[in-house]
Design a protein that fits this description.
alpha+beta, Butyryl-Coa Dehydrogenase, subunit A, domain 1, Butyryl-CoA Dehydrogenase, subunit A, domain 2, Butyryl-CoA Dehydrogenase, subunit A, domain 3, 3 domains, 11 helices, 49% helix
Length: 396
């Protein structure tokens, strides 16, 4: 009579063994990015957050480019051409350090580079993508405006024809990397609908102003772009970008990275809380021994693992060419909400220590306030899912 071998006890840091289904190549990406983040970024991130900036963004860009992370899911032009899951894993490990660092990478790759890759001319791709992939040039993505956030179709930035050229006027805001970018992908309304343009930094009439006094995503450069009579040749227009669907498709790429990144933030908060609960003693024993603490930790590990499974499943669908944008909305909404719940419980378990930068939990908690808003608020994604399940649009 044979005896059944008992399965090993769950790993507290990967309770459902989600990572066991990764391929060797995906595991290599995970381990390489995790090691880089913990070695080069984690020791300084609290100081960068407190200072409200990235002190050497170009040095960081070169280091990230050296790992091949910029536009890593794109094909050709110096891009790595990895799977969607591999790209998601990179986003997860970056955001486990800080949302601002993941945003630095995903804005470059999934917004600026992806826009040029999908909608640019061969000349534009050859000019911009290889140096951006290498981290030698930095890009940004100008869509959001002071009065046009969730409704980008109401944008006031205009591009008008003047002879063979285009002249752009308007303002974009909340633009990650804006004031350090070498080029901005800017979206503007024209007489024929929304069009995209690559605006090199230094173009007369184009200025980028840093937004200060942020309480969230502080280890990130956020800017306002002002276009005052910016004159561009026809060759600056993205020739294949016609209509609002073009920038929205880029946003969908960024949202995919966010739903993975939120898993990293949640995991970091859970791991910090688990470690703290095991070492913090009250009433003569570790607080991990108390029932209410264990309930919080159990709820946290469930949220982290549910979010991990959602991200991995959507990544597999995306690699199969079967991931619909409504499903990305599902992942962005559900995973960010899960990360916010985990961060709040982790801050509670840390007590007064939880409000300091000695521990990562409040930093992640504050960052997630931005993550919940950008690339579509939770309301927008709820309505996207609602439209998908009812067949009725509630947007207009």
């Amino acid at each position: 009579m044979s005896t059944r071998r008992r399965p090993p006890a769950p790993d507290p840091l990967d309770f459902l063994s989600v990572d066991s289904s990764l391929s060797p190549e995906e595991t290599d990406v995970r381990d390489t990015v995790r090691a880089f983040c913990r070695r080069e970024l984690l020791p300084d991130i609290a100081d960068w957050f407190e200072a409200g900036t990235i002190p050497d963004p170009r040095g960081l860009a070169r280091a990230v480019g050296g790992l091949g992370l910029f536009g890593m899911h794109l094909e050709g032009y110096g891009c790595a051409g990895t799977s969607a899951v591999a790209y998601g894993l990179a986003c997860r490990e970056l955001e486990a350090v800080d949302s601002g660092l993941r945003s630095f990478v995903s804005v470059q790759g999934s917004l600026a580079m992806a826009a040029i890759h999908m909608y640019g001319s061969e000349e534009q791709k050859t000019r911009w993508l290889p140096p951006m992939a290498a981290g030698e040039l930095i890009g940004c993505f100008g869509l959001t405006e002071p009065d046009s956030g969730s409704d980008p179709g109401s944008m006031r930035t205009r591009a008008r024809r003047d002879g063979p050229d285009w002249v752009l006027d308007g303002t974009k805001t909340w633009i990650t990397n804006g004031s350090i970018a070498d080029a901005a992908v800017v979206w503007a309304a024209t007489d024929d609908g929304v069009r995209g343009f690559v605006v090199p930094a230094g173009t007369p009439g184009f200025t980028a102003n840093v937004i200060h006094r942020k309480l969230s995503l502080r280890a990130s450069v956020t800017s306002e772009l002002v276009l005052d009579g910016v004159r561009l040749p026809e060759s600056a227009r993205l020739p294949l970008a016609e209509g609002l669907g073009a920038p929205l498709s880029c946003l969908n790429e960024a949202r995919y990275g966010i739903l993975w990144g939120a898993v990293g933030a949640a995991r970091a908060c859970y791991e910090a809380a688990l470690s703290y609960a095991a070492t913090r003693e009250q009433f003569g024993r570790p607080i991990a021994a108390f029932q209410l603490t264990q309930r919080k930790l159990a709820e946290m590990v469930v949220d982290v693992n549910h979010a991990s499974l959602t991200a991995l499943h959507l990544g597999r669908l995306k690699d199969a060419g079967a991931c619909h944008h409504n499903q990305v909305s599902f992942g962005k909404f559900s995973n960010v909400a899960a990360a916010q719940r985990v961060a709040a419980k982790a801050r509670s378990l840390h007590g007064a220590n939880g409000i300091t930068l000695e521990y990562p939990v409040l930093r992640h908690m504050l960052n997630l306030e931005t993550v919940a808003t950008y690339e579509g608020t939770e309301e927008i994604h709820m309505l996207s899912v609602g439209q998908a399940v009812t067949g009725v649009s509630a947007f207009r």
